[in-house]
Design a protein that fits this description.
This protein is an alpha/beta fold. The protein folds into two domains: 128 residues, Aspartate Aminotransferase, domain 1, CATH 3.90.1150.10; 221 residues, Type I PLP-dependent aspartate aminotransferase-like (Major domain) (Aspartate Aminotransferase, domain 2). The protein contains 13 helices and 14 strands. The protein has a seven-stranded mixed β-sheet with strand order 4-10-9-8-7-5-6, sandwiched between helices. Strands 1-2-3-12 form a four-stranded mixed β-sheet. Strands 11-14-13 form a three-stranded antiparallel β-sheet, with helices on one face. The longest helix has 19 residues. The chain is globular and about 55 Å long. Bound molecules: pyridoxal-5'-phosphate. The site of pyridoxal-5'-phosphate has 14 residues, from helix 3. One of its GO terms (molecular function) is 8-amino-7-oxononanoate synthase activity. It catalyses: 6-carboxyhexanoyl-[ACP] + L-alanine + H(+) = (8S)-8-amino-7-oxononanoate + holo-[ACP] + CO2.
Length: 400
């Protein structure tokens, strides 16, 4: 029992515990073929964002295709970047990479941020301010929500993927306000896909900017993993494309892709870009290496999408509610926090790392197990996991 100055914290933590919302850390080591050692137990990892299995990549310590002959290799293999990009942290590897990545994304330019969270915070708060309006899908990621709060703009949430609701809000908005529509392309906790073409139509009709967060589609969708925006031919229509290297690219860091002037503006205005030390140059070198694998090893995307569609069908066949999933993110919606935790604990006992996602990450009353598939999962392992999921789900009366 803690007394004195931290009593309020203890009470808050106790209240989280009573609502089955307390979070704790577990030692986790990644093993081969999508297995993991979690809390000392070997489990099939159905909770990772390493969709293509690229997180195993190590820097190969070689010259990269764009490096000039005379450039010292060691410069781009350092860990410490020593300062922010705008001071002396801008190793040549950054701009070379950004130019190439922009061309892959079909945009004029691109800017690397330290993480997706920081990109969303910095970009949204740079683009809109107190007098402006932001229209955001109700299920957008927390980093988008935090960027909006930081911007102090008027914040209106539209119903999930509901174009009519969004249009109603746009119609009734002050025509003098600068407007930003923002959406995930694949929703992180639901696996549903945003109606990007319709959003483009609306943003054009109402003179709004459109920002799309490709965190969960980058590396996977499109001919070479350029993401959903590119695969729909919308690279020039979506004003701000954001994505992260921490998921399918199996690395760390994030980017914004768009017009040159946007990138120049963000270099000057995005505080999470300006006031932080640049990512280690070696991190960019590993991103580059993984990006080449994303482009050249298309069996990874194919295998991921095939396994995901099959896994979802198998869950539905067993009577589970998989919500609106259309991707490699497949939830089983349970509803109650405690029941969801209980389901997850039983699964983990059987060697299935499938974790409970509870409010505030998802709306109240929609707690769920979030399954994510990896291209390197073995079919035999997924089949065995499905047997456990089905049996435990029935035992706990989670099936429909
Ligand atoms: C939709 C979405 N945007 C942004 C982020 C943040 O990205 P990062 O993990 O690189 O900070 C995430 C990751 O959790 C996400 O799911």
């Amino acid at each position: 029992m803690v007394h004195g100055k931290w009593k309020w914290m203890e009470e808050e933590l106790q209240s989280l515990k009573e609502k089955s919302q307390l979070r704790t850390l577990h030692d986790t080591s990644l093993l081969e073929n999508g297995w993991v050692l979690r809390g000392g137990k070997k489990m099939l990892n159905l909770a990772s964002n390493d969709y293509l299995g690229l997180s195993e990549s190590l820097n190969e310590n070689k010259r990269y295709q764009f490096m000039k002959e005379e450039e010292p290799i060691s410069s781009s293999l350092r860990f410490g970047s020593t300062a922010s990009r705008l001071i002396v942290g801008n190793d040549p590897i950054y701009r070379e990479f950004e130019k190439q990545f922009a061309s892959y994304k079909g945009t004029e330019d691109c800017l690397v941020f330290s993480s997706g969270y920081m990109a969303n915070l910095g970009v949204i708060s740079a683009l809109i301010g107190r007098k402006d309006l932001v229209l955001s899908d109700r299920l957008n990621h927390a980093s988008i929500v935090d960027g909006i709060i930081l911007s102090r703009a008027e914040h209106k949430r539209y119903k999930h993927r509901d174009i009519e609701h969004l249009e109603y809000l746009l119609k009734n908005a002050d025509s003098n306000q600068r407007k930003l529509i923002v959406t995930d392309s694949i929703f992180s906790m639901d696996g549903s896909i945003a109606p990007l073409e319709k959003l483009v139509e609306l943003k054009n009709r109402y003179g709004a900017m459109l920002m799309v967060d490709e965190a969960h589609s980058g590396g996977i969708y499109g001919a070479q993993g350029q993401g959903l925006v590119h695969s729909l031919g919308l690279s020039n229509e979506v004003d701000i494309q954001m994505g992260t290297f921490s998921k399918a690219y199996g690395c760390y860091g994030a980017y914004i892709a768009g017009d040159s002037i946007l990138i120049q503006y963000l270099m000057n205005k995005a505080r999470s870009f300006i006031f932080t030390t640049a990512l280690p140059p070696i991190n960019i070198a590993v991103i580059l290496q993984n990006w080449l694998r994303v482009q050249n090893e298309s069996w990874r995307q194919k295998s991921l999408l095939e396994k995901s569609a099959w896994f979802k069908k198998e869950l539905q066949f067993r009577g589970f509610n998989t919500g609106e999933s259309e991707s490699q993110i497949i939830p089983i919606i349970v509803g109650d926090n405690k029941e969801t935790l209980n389901f997850s604990n039983h699964l983990q006992e059987k060697g299935v790392a499938a974790l409970a996602v509870r409010p505030p990450t998802v709306p109240e009353g929609t707690a769920r197990i979030r399954f994510t598939i990896m291209s390197i999962h073995q079919e035999v392992d997924l089949k065995e996991a499905l047997v456990h999921i089905g049996e435990i789900g029935q035992q706990l009366k989670i099936t429909l």
